[in-house]
Design goal:
The chain is an alpha+beta fold. It contains 13 helices and 17 strands. A hairpin with a 7-residue loop joins strand 2 and strand 3. Bound molecules: succinic acid (SIN) and cobalt (II) ion.
């Protein structure tokens, strides 16, 4: 194998093309020693500390083996007393979206550039003592489970479907029958990483005190898409002109009190014509996929600020001011439309260089962005991004 080919292997195992062809969204894959020298940059105590914060989402899953309802879930924020009085085994503390708060955690995301950036969700961190787990379950998301400290035994079964029995009322999709026919049992050590596509039954049990990072990828379901598209389509001026029509209906159908197959086809046609508008689809998908778990950006305040001071232009910020994307900032684009943290910005053809700059970096000289902003909408967008906190000054960074 040439050095070049070796360099392109994902986590030292296989090429991006092989991964996308044979595993992504299809089957689990264990990457042994994916990141052998990985240094977590956050300790288990610090992770537990995050679970005390009321602005951070956390859960504590406790198992009482043999009980009629063995699984209990409590939601954070927790008190120090809650966390210091935990038993020696059989619990797991999960902290959501740690990458949005801790730069040392967010750095790991740069390892996943072989997948669409806009599919990325967040990094959840779990800590657990011996036998700690969240139970046998399935998720609707793709996840890369990086073993960061200690050891965890993963039992993986077949993909689940809507008929797979789950424990009623449990906030997680815990499988009533566990994982009856495991297809794989893998013990993971620090540096190992397991990829799981959506819906595969899995159960990760800590074998000692351990920390696992889950890099999750989101995908909308049909309800989210239909609901979101309906709200977006409402903004189209001519939406009331896109309407069910039964011109040329036959006399037999006209006098039949039942719905006909043709009536369903006409409705399907109406939905298809609505969804044929690329900008409607893109605006919804771009905004939805860049939304943050925590609504951290003050859009309304920013709008008001810009209204109140129409002359507010940051074009004259000093030559050498550096800016970067705030940790939670997610961006994507479609044509000349830019999507940032759940917002859509409609720019002009002449602003394509600005969009390229924004999508292909995370740290910029403010003046380069300003110079690439040819239209008023681009300059307004940059102001909104800075004032809302989506972009932040990075003065302390080296140039
Ligand atoms: C864990 O880290 O304990 C749970 C992650 C998962 O199974 O999705
Ligand atoms: Co899971």
């Amino acid at each position: 194998m040439t050095d070049n080919a070796r360099e392109q292997l994902l986590f030292g195992s296989l090429s991006q093309a092989e991964f996308l062809r044979d595993y992504w969204q299809q089957k689990p894959l264990l990457f042994r020693q994916a990141l052998p020298d990985f240094k977590p940059g956050i300790s288990t105590d610090e992770v537990a500390g995050l679970a005390l914060e009321d602005s951070i989402e956390s859960r504590l899953v406790t198992e009482t083996p043999g009980a009629r309802q063995p699984w209990t879930v409590r939601h954070g924020p927790f008190s120090e007393q809650d966390l210091t009085s935990l038993p020696a085994s059989h619990w797991s503390l999960l902290v959501q979206a740690v990458d949005q708060w801790v730069p040392e955690v967010s750095q790991l995301l740069s390892e996943f550039k072989f997948l669409p950036a806009w599919r990325l969700d967040d990094i959840m961190i779990s800590i657990a003592p011996d036998q700690g787990s969240v139970g046998p379950h399935y998720d609707q998301y793709d996840v890369f489970l990086l073993q960061v400290e200690g050891h965890r035994r993963w039992t993986v079964g077949a993909p689940c479907d809507p008929d797979t029995p789950i424990i009623e009322g449990a906030p997680l999709r815990i499988l009533r029958q566990g994982i009856p026919e495991p297809t794989q049992v893998w013990d993971l050590a620090p540096g190992d990483m397991l990829y799981l596509p959506p819906r595969y039954a899995h159960h990760g049990v800590a074998l000692d005190t351990c920390m696992t990072w889950s890099v999750g990828f989101r995908a909308p379901d049909a309800y989210e898409a239909l609901h979101g598209l309906a709200l977006r389509a409402e903004l189209e001026d001519d939406i009331e002109f896109l309407r069910y029509s039964d011109a040329n209906i036959s006399p037999a159908e006209a006098t039949d009190r039942r719905l006909s197959a043709a009536s369903l086809d006409r409705l399907r046609g109406l939905l298809t014509r609505t969804a044929a508008r690329d900008e409607v689809l893109a605006d919804w998908l771009g905004a939805y996929m860049t939304q943050n778990k925590y609504d951290l950006f003050d859009w309304q305040g920013t709008e008001n600020q810009l209204e109140a001071d129409a002359a507010n232009q940051m074009g004259d910020m000093a030559e050498d001011v550096m800016v970067r994307g705030a940790l939670p900032t997610r961006m994507t684009a479609w044509g000349t439309r830019l999507y940032v943290n759940g917002r859509a910005f409609v720019l002009e053809e002449s602003d394509r260089p600005l969009i390229d700059l924004l999508l292909n970096g995370n740290r910029w000289r403010w003046q380069s962005l300003w110079a690439a902003s040819q239209s008023d909408s681009a300059r307004r967008t940059l102001n909104v991004l800075l004032l809302s906190g989506s972009l932040e000054r990075a003065d302390g960074d080296d140039v």
